[in-house]
Amino acid sequence: MKEIVISNFKMNMTDGQIVEYFSNISIKADKTLKKLVFCVPFTSLHFAEKYQNDLISFGAQNMHEEEFGSYTGEISANMIDEFGVKYVLLGHSERRKNFNETNEKINKKIKTALKHGMTAILCVGETLQQRKRNQTYEVLRLQIGSGLDEIYENELSNIIIAYEPIWAVGTGKVAENKDIEEASLLIKKIISEHYSVNAGNNLKIVYGGSVNSKNCKQIFKIKTISGVLIGGASLDSKEFEKIIC
Ligand code: PEP
To answer: Where are the alpha helices (H) located in 10-150, listed in sequence order?
Structure first.
């Protein structure tokens, strides 16, 4: 489905370039699109005050789990919150890999995000090797089980799970519909077992990994996902416009 579209600008775009981006983009979303989230660099989160509305929200790409303290170079939930930012990407595979983020650390970050009334977008997904070894279910179960440890069922409305197979993120290799559908059903099963069948049915799942204007229509046909998370293709305003409109 095409209910939620989340962009991830990663470490791209200066504040000036984002001004240009928003002056170039025309957001004429169709009725199916309910939420469009721009996960921009921290330095541009202030745009939330200008552009947020019922459809458009801004999101941070990460944050620290502690409220404040001696964590040089880090960003706290309060700092993000001050701009009215209501979404935060947590556990992105690039952060797991490049910054050694563990499931335990991600779990703490999720708890902090929820405490601040934010929606946490928990990114999960297997490597190619894990997929070839049929370990996808185990990987997802560990990432979700530990990531959502001590998170209560009534808090799940503020959690989105982004299924992002690592072999598809930034590689140009998009997962096939049957694989996305299968993984999203596994995620729902994990949530159903952990909480309840209702929780599994109501969970919002998005797919991320090399989505672009050419393959998005095919992906939007998948009924077990609510939308997509887009990195590279969200950086070009005209390309992104084709995806959302
Ligand atoms: C991402 O950064 O989460 C992502 C899905 O990137 P890309 O669309 O470039 O694969």
So the answer is: 15-24, 48-51, 77-81, 93-98, 103-115, 128-132, 136-147
